[in-house]
């Protein structure tokens, strides 16, 4: 511990003299010697009703992406999905990155809570558990935003790019689009001239282990679709 950190600890011990000194020291260490963060934790421990509301407001404000990408300019003609998709993917990627940051914070608070419980510091554990819940809520909100952005970018399109979607959401989007493009069963005489291009990727960004591609293939085989691969990460589906 540096001299400055020791001075900060002494100030905290004086300010929170009603708290056990070992508890204050442990929380200071768990907050990586951040006096401000330690002060917040201790205040919540001593005045939970007053401080939890402030914490929730802070978490709610954090749910909004810090860097907003401006929406595409208005035009008299409806833009093609291929033209607006890169912008949507950038927005979704930013949401995912922020969600990952909240996930890391959630994991850190969970580890801290477990350590406090083992040490018998139950009030401190309760604070960390509350922090973890708030961070988890922020993470869920941002991941939902990312999915919604990608889904909207594909409205009324015969082209899908499933990057940045979970396997579940990717299959839901594929199923929805095929239902729109397929002909009614009573009119399926001969092959349809409609095609759906789908970019599945091939696992380049996940260590070479494709997740979406095999799931899409399994869905198409199960539902008897005719398809072929334009390349390793793009499939062309013959609609029914």
From TrEMBL:
Residues 160-239 form the Smr domain. One of its GO terms (cellular component) is nucleus. Residues 58-80 are annotated as: Disordered. One of its GO terms (molecular function) is endonuclease activity. This is Smr domain-containing protein. It comes from Ancylostoma ceylanicum. The gene is Acey_s0037.g3479.
């Amino acid at each position: 511990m540096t001299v400055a950190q020791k001075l900060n600890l002494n100030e905290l011990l004086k300010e929170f003299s009603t708290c056990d000194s070992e508890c204050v020291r442990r929380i200071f260490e768990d907050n990586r010697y951040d006096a401000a963060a330690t002060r917040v934790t201790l205040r919540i421990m001593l005045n939970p009703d007053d401080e939890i509301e402030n914490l929730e407001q802070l978490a709610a404000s954090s749910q909004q992406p810090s860097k907003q990408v401006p929406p595409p300019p208005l035009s008299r003609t409806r833009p093609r999905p291929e033209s607006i998709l890169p912008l949507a993917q950038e927005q979704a990627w930013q949401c995912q990155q922020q969600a990952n940051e909240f996930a890391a914070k959630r994991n850190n608070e969970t580890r801290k809570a477990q350590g406090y419980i083992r040490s018998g510091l139950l009030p401190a554990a309760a604070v960390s558990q509350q922090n973890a819940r708030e961070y988890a809520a922020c993470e869920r909100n941002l991941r939902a935003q990312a999915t919604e952005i990608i889904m909207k970018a594909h409205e009324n399109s015969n082209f899908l790019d499933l990057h940045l979607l979970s396997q579940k959401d990717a299959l839901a989007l594929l199923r929805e689009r095929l239902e729109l493009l397929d002909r009614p069963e009573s009119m399926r005489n001969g092959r349809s001239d409609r095609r759906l291009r789908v970019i599945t990727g091939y696992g380049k960004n996940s260590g070479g282990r494709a997740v979406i591609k095999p799931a899409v293939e399994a869905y198409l085989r199960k539902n008897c679709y005719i398809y072929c691969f334009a390349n390793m990460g793009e499939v062309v589906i013959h609609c029914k």
